[in-house]
């Protein structure tokens, strides 16, 4: 029984106001749980019905431990708390609105016997209501890949874009506890900071088959997308000094916010608006023409910006064909 056996795997979920989604997540996990598995749910002081939903599942599943915090500390802190409370050798940092596909847990348990520092699990991507498959595989590989812990830059080049998704991470608990974490509080990507701050002590497995279903477009940080992808994400990647600058630049320019094409793209997606302009560009040490250009983009209709972006892409394709 779990009470007398240390679990091998802890599924660690940080949640906040997810009453409409976390039940479906748990329903995908619980049928796969064995006595070797526990589920740790840390609730950052939800104000909706999340507590009632989780407690209803906890009553039926002895492997669930639910901890509701007295205040909202943010996902980075809450995931840290979940790992601290966990008892498993490995911790799967799972999102509170995505789903586990069949055989996900048994596959991870089998692979964990090989003593990996990290297991990266591939995912399928669907739309918000799971009615349409958007990508069969988020990480385009056909067979499992193994990297030495010292080959952290090879993993970075291969998977860093995908690994912005925290649900793919199954990490050795002792490794997590030993690494620097506080500096990544508020980054929204604490797992990336923990993994890539230094080489890993044991090999890394990247699983080719998708064992997760991502619910795209439902992240709670969507309103902060511009700040996250223009400032937080590049600043995080550029903090990994042992990763070559060439590798970092392949995935994110440290000053992407200075590229008009990038700003236009965010406006076309509805992520950049006058609100973001006032917050980020009026105080920037930049020229008058730049402030005027970014202001015009912020005030332009999204449909017009989409037309401009499509025209640019068509011209680029024509030039490439010629």
The fraction of residues in strands falls at: 15-25%
Report the CATH topology name of the largest domain. Answer: Spore Coat Polysaccharide Biosynthesis Protein SpsA, Chain A
Largest β-sheet summary: 10 strands, mixed
Query: Structural class of the secondary structure composition?
Result: alpha/beta
| Mean pLDDT figure | 90
Morphology: globular
> Which parts are unreliable, with pLDDT below 50 for 5 consecutive residues or more?
none
Structure characterization notes:
- The protein is of the alpha/beta class and 322 residues long.
- The chain folds into 2 domains: 2-215, Alpha-Beta Complex (Spore Coat Polysaccharide Biosynthesis Protein SpsA, Chain A), CATH 3.90.550; 222-321, no CATH class.
- It has helices at residues 22-29, 50-60, 75-85, 104-112, 152-159, 173-178, 190-196, 225-237, 245-251, 260-268, 274-280, 288-299, 302-321; strands at 9-15, 37-43, 64-68, 90-94, 99-100, 118-126, 133-135, 145-147, 169-172, 204-215.
- Strands 1, 2, 3, 4, 5, 6, 7, 8, 9 and 10 form a 10-stranded mixed β-sheet that branches.
- Helix 10 (260-268) runs parallel beside helix 12, helix 10 packs across helix 13 (302-321) and helix 11 (274-280) runs antiparallel to helix 12 (288-299).
- The model has no long low-confidence stretch (mean pLDDT 90).
Q: What is the compact description of this entry?
A:
With 322 residues, this protein is α/β, with parallel strands linked by helices. It has helices at residues 22-29, 50-60, 75-85, 104-112, 152-159, 173-178, 190-196, 225-237, 245-251, 260-268, 274-280, 288-299, 302-321; strands at residues 9-15, 37-43, 64-68, 90-94, 99-100, 118-126, 133-135, 145-147, 169-172, 204-215. It folds into 2 domains: 2-215, Spore Coat Polysaccharide Biosynthesis Protein SpsA, Chain A (Alpha-Beta Complex); 222-321, no CATH class.
């Amino acid at each position: 029984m779990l009470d007398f056996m240390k679990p091998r795997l802890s599924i660690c979920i940080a949640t906040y106001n997810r009453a409409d989604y976390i039940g479906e997540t748990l329903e995908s996990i619980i049928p796969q749980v064995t006595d070797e598995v526990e589920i740790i749910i840390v609730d950052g002081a939800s104000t909706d019905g999340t507590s009632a939903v989780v407690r209803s599942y906890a009553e039926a599943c002895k492997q669930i431990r639910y901890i509701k915090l007295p205040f909202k500390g943010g996902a980075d802190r809450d995931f840290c708390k979940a790992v601290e409370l966990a008892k498993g050798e490995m911790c799967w940092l799972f999102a509170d609105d995505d789903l586990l596909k069949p055989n996900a847990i048994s596959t991870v348990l089998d692979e964990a016997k090989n003593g990996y520092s990290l297991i990266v699990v591939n995912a399928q991507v669907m739309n918000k209501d799971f009615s349409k498959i958007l990508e069969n595989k988020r990480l385009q590989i056909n067979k499992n890949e193994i990297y030495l812990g010292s080959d952290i830059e090879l993993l970075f080049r291969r998977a860093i874009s995908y690994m912005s998704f925290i649900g793919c991470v199954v990490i050795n608990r002792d490794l997590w506890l030993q690494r620097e974490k506080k500096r990544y509080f508020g980054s929204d990507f604490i797992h990336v900071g923990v993994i890539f701050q230094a080489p890993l002590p044991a090999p890394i497995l990247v699983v080719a088959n998708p064992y997760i279903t991502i619910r795209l477009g439902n992240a709670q940080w969507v309103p902060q997308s511009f700040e996250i992808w223009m400032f937080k994400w590049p600043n995080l990647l550029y903090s990994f000094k042992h990763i070559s600058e060439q590798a970092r630049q392949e995935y994110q320019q440290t000053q992407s916010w200075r590229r008009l094409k990038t700003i236009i793209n965010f406006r076309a997606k509805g992520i950049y608006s006058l609100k973001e302009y006032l917050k980020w560009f009026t105080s920037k040490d930049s020229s008058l023409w730049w402030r005027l250009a970014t202001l015009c983009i912020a005030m332009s209709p999204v449909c017009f910006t989409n037309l401009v972006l499509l025209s640019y892409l068509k011209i680029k394709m024509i030039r490439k064909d010629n």
